[in-house]
């Protein structure tokens, strides 16, 4: 199988981190989308989004939550998702919450990147910021206790959020910030997928 990814995307980095965390480097070929000029993603995924996992028969598997479930199954199951029951759905829900932080941060980023200043909608930006604040409050009240799929997603979302110089999420979530710093220093899959400085 092949994983097409880019470490600049919180969703694609999440998939790359899962490959490392699950010990699948010998089974998954990692293809950095930033250096691949063939534009194969556009032809296989109609949404033209990464990450994308390509099975040996050419089947495209997307998007990132589905890829994480597939990788967990390849690794034997029950590694980054509980195998069954309510705990599994709690993890899936927390992963969705982490992804929601990343999605809202990306929408704010796009508002800044694609619109002239006079076209930007402060009400829309505040709406996305509210999502981030509420989701962060949930994680602050229940900081991850294991490095599961939801924790991987949260780390990637917070990394992307931290790239915004106008938002200091750490002030409102000090326990989450301490967790983030510990993970950044100590998790091998985080260190292995640290984006290179350009």
Roughly how many Å apart are the termini? 28 Å
Number of domains: 2
How many strands?
4
CATH class of the largest domain equals Mainly Alpha
Strand order across the largest sheet: 2-1-3-4
Low-confidence regions: none
Major sheet, described briefly?
A: 4 strands, mixed
Structural class: alpha+beta
Helix content: 55-70%
Count of alpha/pi helices: 8
Description:
The structure is a single chain. With 198 residues, the chain is α+β, with helices and mostly antiparallel strands. It has 2 domains: 2-74, Glutaredoxin; 85-187, Up-down Bundle (Glutathione S-transferase Yfyf (Class Pi), Chain A, domain 2). It is 56% helix and 7% strand. The chain has a 4-stranded mixed sheet. The radius of gyration is 17 Å and the shape is globular.
Topology:
Blueprint: E1 2-5, H1 10-21, E2 29-32, H2 40-44, E3 52-54, E4 60-61, H3 64-74, H4 85-114, H5 122-141, H6 149-162, H7 174-186, H8 188-192
Helix pairs in contact: 1-3, 1-6, 4-5, 4-6
């Amino acid at each position: 199988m092949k994983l097409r990814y880019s470490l600049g995307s919180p969703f694609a980095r999440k998939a790359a981190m899962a490959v490392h965390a699950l010990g699948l480097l010998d089974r998954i070929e990692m293809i950095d989308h930033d250096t691949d000029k063939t534009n194969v993603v556009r032809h296989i995924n109609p949404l033209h989004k990464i990450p994308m996992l390509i099975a040996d028969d050419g089947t495209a598997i997307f998007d990132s939550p589905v890829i994480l479930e597939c990788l967990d199954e390849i690794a034997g199951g029950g590694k980054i998702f509980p195998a069954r029951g309510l705990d599994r759905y709690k993890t899936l829900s927390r992963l969705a919450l982490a992804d929601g932080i990343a999605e809202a941060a990306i929408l704010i980023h796009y508002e800044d990147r694609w619109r002239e200043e006079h076209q930007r909608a402060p009400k829309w930006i505040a709406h996305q910021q509210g999502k981030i604040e509420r989701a962060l409050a949930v994680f602050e009240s229940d900081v991850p206790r294991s490095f599961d799929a939801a924790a991987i997603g949260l780390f990637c979302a917070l990394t992307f959020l931290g790239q915004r110089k106008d938002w200091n999420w750490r002030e409102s979530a000090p326990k989450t910030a301490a967790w983030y710093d510990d993970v950044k220093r100590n998790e091998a899959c985080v260190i292995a997928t640290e984006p290179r400085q350009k």
